């Protein structure tokens, strides 16, 4: 077996039975409590117990166990590709000699032995001490591998930020730009509406002036015609008188 496969064996990997029927659209059921008997499956390098699921916090150094911890805002499923990538990173950074990985491998090999966790830890440390492994080296190398995983997480977050900038943030900026354009156009519409009302008011005023002007013109025409008729009538009357005397 290759070291990569051995390293993967230190983790608990959820296995889906291909023959099992696919669940229909039913409400999720309450998770069953783990069985008393340890499951015969690969162990986690960061979880100690055989029945500890991925995300469990049972530690081969601390004994005891807690349930899987929920991360606030996190949602997702186990991803084999990500898992392989993390294992590969640990493998590439594997320290020479006996360290935390060998300790966990030996500890997990005792999964089905009915011994207290404390006794198992002491037994593994005593056995591997013959190869130069100390508790201090276990703790230091565990921190070292945890840092390797943290480095991978930092790389992931950096790549995620780039993807977010390209796929989310740029679109959000586009939305903000369109929203600003909407505000500007709405303001322009309000400005045009004010100008339209001003034009209507001017039209109303001009119409009133036209009515008044036409009234004055009509009155002037009437006055002119009346005066004209009066003057012309006087001339005609005088002519008639003169013609009557000279006839």
Which key features would you list for this structure?
about 250 residues, single chain, 5 helices
Could you walk me through the main structural features you see in this protein, from its secondary elements to its overall organization?
It contains 5 helices and no strands. It is mainly α and 247 residues long. It has a domain at 3-14 and 36-63 and 78-177. The longest helix is centred in the last third of the chain and has 112 residues, at 135-246. The chain starts with a helix and ends with a helix.
Structure, briefly:
This protein has 5 helices and no strands. By secondary structure, the chain is mostly helical.
Report the span from N to C terminus: 157 Å
Q: Estimate the global geometry from the Cα principal axes.
A: rod-shaped
How would you state the average pLDDT, rounded?
Answer: 78
Could you give a short account of the major beta sheet?
none
Beta percentage is under 5%
Number of helices: 5
Q: Quickly give the structural class.
A: mainly alpha
Low-pLDDT stretches are 23-73
Secondary-structure blueprint of this entry?
Layout: H1 3-8, H2 80-92, H3 100-109, H4 117-129, H5 135-246
